[in-house]
Amino acid sequence: MYFGNLPVLLLLILSCVRAGNLCVRRQTINILEEEYFSNCCPRGEQDKGDTVKWYTDKEGNWTLIQRDSRIELNGTFLEFWPAVLNDTGNYTCHFSNGTHSIKNDKIWSLKVLHRNKTSCFNANHISSGIPGILGRAYMFKCSNIHHKANVVEITWYKHLHLKQDCIRKLEKEEELYIDQLATRDSGKYTCVKSFVHAGKRYNATHTIELRVNEDTEENTEPRLTGPDHYVIKTEIGKKEILNCTAFLGYSNTVVREPMLYWVHNGRIIEKCQDTDSPCQMEELSDQKEGKKYSLIQLYIKNIKEEDISSSYTCNFIVGSYTSNQTFTLQKETNRDLPLHVFTPGIITAILFSLVAVFVVILYVVFKVELVLLYRDITGKDETLEDGKIYDAFVSYLKDCVPICGKERKFALDILPKVLEEHFGYKLCVFERDISPGGAVVDDVQSFIDRSRRLIIILSKNYISDNVMFELETGLHKALVEKKIKVILIEYMPISDFDFLPKSLELLSSSHVVKWKEEKSHRLNSRFWKKLRYAMPAKPFSMKAPAALCGTHPSVET
Q: Do 337 and 344 form a contact (C-beta atoms < 8 A)?
């Protein structure tokens, strides 16, 4: 941000920095209504640890400012979220150590300006920037008087001259940089900082007016632009175009007919006419910012060995004024990088590569843990408003008692207890939740439709008409209709899957979980983590995080 009295401002800033603060002392401050604003109380070393009290004078009486829903007292800062017209007045601050109060003799005036909702800026809320010089670089800096760090967006606007519209220039940059000023860059520039506080968004606006002036020391006489001598790096067989530009004067000045041409070895180079020899192209005229220019180019179709170290001269004659520029061609050499540049570069590249590989390995190894941690921290819930009743439908072999007693124990006891009682999921288990007497096919179809996942407990005994229907129905909904995701639990190692549908091979490997007896008993085992990873994300409160599933397939709660 630029101010008219820059040296005074710098002295004020330095005086505050010496005292251990970054407080800018200002006598009068203009801000817009309904915007965030803060100002600080300059504090010296002797004031550290003291309480700051703020006072305002609006009707001739100084009154103590109290914190409320809109005004915050944040250490040495007085904050308005946001400022309103009634905040206009004088302000000062005192330091208190509980016994004594130290009055600050610095009083500053705050003026809250009415916002013009039909314009992009307020005419009374404009700072005069340092005038820019035509053709030179210029940098705007967004207002940094706000101490809050939670800036969510910075947007720059440029105001049009003939109407009160504005156009966006640049986003999310503290500084706006123009590398070469032109006359059209004059105007008003507004920076809008956006903050988030207590769930609401507030802006802080700062407008700067820029005037672009011509350099009074600039030579306005016709001349060739650029240095007198150029060295052009090139290669054998390469095409080159050499540019020679002459400044002729301003558009309102009359210039005698100029002469601009190329010379080589004392001879004027001919114009281009289907030849391999160097030739000069047609002269071009142009006007930029009220200035007239003339350009003539030398075209070299194919650089030869004899062209290297040769010089080509551009001559400019207007009236009695003459000048020239020399262009010398030199062969480009591929120099090796210096050791002090090469070595750190190689080391940096290797380190970055190692870090990238390490991060990838960490993600691959701990992907499940990272996803579960993210769910726990954010409280992510995928089950809201999806119309489903159950988190998973459990498919298992139901008619093999007592041959597969352990498998049924796992399906009817262990799995529901852990997923429902410890992780908050709701399962649909056939023998427990589906009432007898109904049409089994219709019931299974209906309950699968109302579930977010289909858990299939596979074992060497898994085969029957009922479970095959459940399996085929679930696979059709998962692979064809895309309405459900399938989770395969390999309860026992299976060597022959020929009796299962081939479409099982299309399921993602991330949704295949293996039960490994003793290794899977603990609630924090890899089995339960991968199962939770495959289940829908939803908040839960674990009842017994240190509990064991026992030394046999059962769960102690």
A: no
* Catalytic residue IDs: 470
CATH code 2.60.40.10 for 223-331: yes
Distances (CA, A) of 266 to 230, 262, 310, 312: 18, 10, 12, 10
CA atoms in the 13 A half-sphere facing the CB of 385: 0
Measured at the CA of 546, the angle between CA 545 and CA 549, to 5 degrees, comes to 100
Instruction: Name the CATH topology of 6-113.
Output: Immunoglobulin-like (2.60.40)
The correct CATH number of 126-213 out of 3.40.190.170, 3.40.50.720, 2.60.40.10, 2.20.70.10 is 2.60.40.10
Which of 32-36, 298-302, 550-554 is least confident? 550-554
Nearest to 284 by CA among 248, 328, 232, 329: 248
* Residues 6+ positions from 521 with CB-CB distance below 8 Å: 548, 549, 550, 551
Q: Is the dihedral of CA 400, 402, 408, 413 positive or negative?
A: positive
Instruction: Report yes or no: 174 and 214 within 8 Å, Cβ to Cβ.
Output: no
pLDDT single digits (tens) 198-236:
889 999 988 888 888 876 545 567 888 888 889 888 888
CA distance linking residue 463 with residue 58, whole number of Å: 86
* 3-state SS assignment for residue 27: coil
Query: What's the CATH class of domain 381-534?
Result: alpha beta
Taking a C-beta distance cutoff of 8 angstroms, is the pair 392, 455 a contact? yes
pLDDT tens for each residue of 291-318: 888 999 999 988 888 888 888 999 998 8
Could you tell me the two tokens for 179?
Answer: 């590398």
CA atoms within 13 A on the CB side of 478: 24
Map 334-377 to HEC letters: CCCCCHHHHHHHHHHHHHHHHHHHHHHHHHHHCHHHHHHHHHHH
